[in-house]
Amino acid sequence: MTQPQHKKQIIKYLERITSQGYDHRSAFQDFLDLSIATMQALPSHFSSIKKTKQFAEDTPETKELFETIKDRYSRHNNWEYIFEAFSLSFFELIESTWDYQDTLGDVFMEFCNPNPHTGQFFTPFNVAKMMAQIQLESIESQIHQQIKKEAATKDPLLGAAVMASMIIKTKEEAEKHFFDFILPLASKHLKPVTVCDPTCGSGVMFIAAASCVPNWMLQLGLVQFYGMDIDMTCVKMAKLNVMIYGLNGFGIKCALSLSEKELATLPQAHQHAYAKAQADYQAGIPIDREQVMEEINNFEQLQMF
């Protein structure tokens, strides 16, 4: 399904609600609030399902939000019908994230008929992406420079690099080691590049910027997005877009909550193996690949992706 089709389907579901006599903007606001609450609860639900096979109990704030919205739509005794429309709209929005697009902003512009006197003319995604490509071309190089600088220090990264040089034979192994071990370790010491939009609207510039940098930089939180707007509806849209695209570390937070075991940080989990490899390397002692790999496998490995 294409992005315009997703947009049309979301509007169709929301119109089920407004056809019952409810205001378009209020229905959209409630859709945003329910969607944000759902996304915020995902990590705790994932963790609880993993441990107990049951959903986590909602926070008092979430319970209050759902009860308030339920009361608002209960006058015709059709809350189940209304809630289904909200749920279908949310799942359709999630489905639309297969590619970087501002589906949420497009729905708002068509469904809510925003006030032109407040300057609510949202930037089309293709224009936002062109602007991002022009303005953010240095982000990737900035992060690469930080990684190179960190790798040159006496931090455990040196041991990790030595270990990689001793045991990795193939390109595929090297790539996996780099993305699963070296980068997660380095990211804890790197200062994220920040992207700030003082008139963020639906957050289209965040999505456009995210589409212009490698995915691993986003997953490790090496690019952070901040914004503000005079319209609270816009702030909520931007917040929801940041979460559904896994930005600002939200994707990693969900992934970690699904992990089977508690994740140890790389330097602690592999400290002995790195220290031994580094000492042997500096002393000119040949490294036994099988022995080193066996020792590493005795530790829990950090899996970020």
Task: Give the helices and strands, then pairings.
Layout: H1 3-18, H2 24-52, H3 60-72, H4 79-95, H5 103-111, H6 125-135, H7 139-151, H8 156-167, H9 171-187, E1 193-197, H10 204-210, H11 215-219, E2 223-227, H12 232-244, H13 250-257, H14 266-269, H15 271-283, H16 289-297
Parallel strand pairs: 1-2
Q: What are its keywords?
A:
single chain; 16 helices; mainly alpha; disordered C terminus; 2 strands; 2 domains; globular; 305 residues; two-stranded parallel sheet
Percent strand equals: under 5%
Q: Percent of residues in helical segments? A: 55-70%
Terminus-to-terminus distance = 27 Å
Strand order of the largest sheet: 1-2
What sort of overall outline do the alpha carbons produce when their principal axes are compared? globular
Give me the Rg, rounded: 24 Å
- Can you count the beta strands? 2
Mean pLDDT equals 77
Q: What is the count of DSSP helices, taking H or I runs of 4+ residues?
A: 16
SS-based structural class? mainly alpha
Provide the number of structural domains.
2
Order of helices and strands: HHHHHHHHHEHHEHHHHH
Largest sheet: 2 strands, parallel
Unreliable stretches (pLDDT < 50, length at least 5) are 260-271, 298-305
Structure description:
It is a single chain. By secondary structure, this protein is mainly α. It has 2 domains: 1-115; 122-305, no CATH class. Helices cover 64% and strands 3% of the residues. It contains 16 helices and 2 strands. It has a two-stranded parallel sheet. Helix 8 runs antiparallel to helix 9 (171-187). 28% of the residues are buried. The model is unreliable at 260-271 and 298-305 (pLDDT under 50).
